[in-house]
Amino acid sequence: MTFSDPFQPPATPNWPNVGLRATLPRLKVLEVFRHSISRHLSAEDVYRALVHAGESQGLSTVYKVLSQFEQVGVLTRSELGQGHTVYELADPSGQRHGHLLCTATGAVNELHLPDLEEQLRTVAQAHGLELTHWSLTAWGRPCGKLLATHPSGTLP
Ligand SMILES: [Zn+2]
Predict the structure, then answer these.
(1) Ligand 1 midpoint to CA 97 (Å)
(2) Neighbours of 44 (CB within 10 A)
(3) Based on the structure, what is the number of domains in the chain?
(4) 78 CA to middle of ligand 1, Å?
(5) Which helix (H) or strand (E) holds 49?
(6) What's the Rg (C-alpha) of the chain?
(7) Which CATH number fits the domain that encloses residue 31?
(8) 27 has a pLDDT exceeding 60
(9) Which of 5, 27, 33, 142 has the highest count of CB atoms within 10 angstroms of its CB?
(10) How far is residue 143's CA from residue 10's CA, in Å, rounded to a whole number?
């Protein structure tokens, strides 16, 4: 199990291969994700970053670009409960992860559970379904204990 892997921005998308043109709004939104300290950004976060940078894209354009990026796999979207949706750059390897939220601080940690997707695939097949996508969000409160982690972010 791995928590909070260091952010590794993917290479710039091969625009023709993802089926999108490299328009100015798309480039600016992608730039926000590539330079943000936070890996998980809401549409409002992206909009505020663009406004702060002096860009003129409106919130509706941001939503449209985020949706387009999600559809072609440049970004992944996660529902973190209570209507809070965040986007992040997709892992170039195609691996997905879940999220563990702190109910006290709102901090978002990543859950990398390598066997989870295969287990979900197996359960889905047992129900006659082909797994097409999945999402996992878990919540926790501070318990005063912090397990030491390896510098790689993995638990012993
Ligand atoms: Zn994440």
Answers:
(1) 6
(2) 12
(3) 1
(4) 8
(5) helix 43-52
(6) 17
(7) 1.10.10.10
(8) yes
(9) 33
(10) 34
Per-residue pLDDT of 114-136, as tens digits, reads 888 899 999 999 999 999 888 88
Token pair belonging to 69: 């990026």
> Which two tokens mark 9?
């921005």
Ranking 13-22, 103-112, 145-154 by mean pLDDT, the lowest is 145-154
Do the domain assignments include residue 151?
Answer: no
State pTM to two decimals: 0.76
Residue 7 has pLDDT above 50, yes or no: no
Q: Which domain holds residue 124?
A: 2-140
Tokens representing 92?
Answer: 């170039």
Q: Could you tell me if residue 7 is inside a domain?
A: yes
Does residue 149 belong to any structural domain of this protein?
no
User: Does residue 97 fall inside a structural domain?
Assistant: yes
Q: Count CB atoms within 10 A of the CB of residue 97.
A: 21
* Beta pairing partners, 99: 110, 137
Q: Give distance in angstroms: CA of 44 to centre of ligand 1.
A: 17
* Strands (E) located in 8-150: 75-79, 85-89, 98-102, 108-112, 137-140
> Ligand 1: distance of its center to the CA of 85 in Å?
11
Separation of 88 CA from ligand 1 center, angstroms? Answer: 6
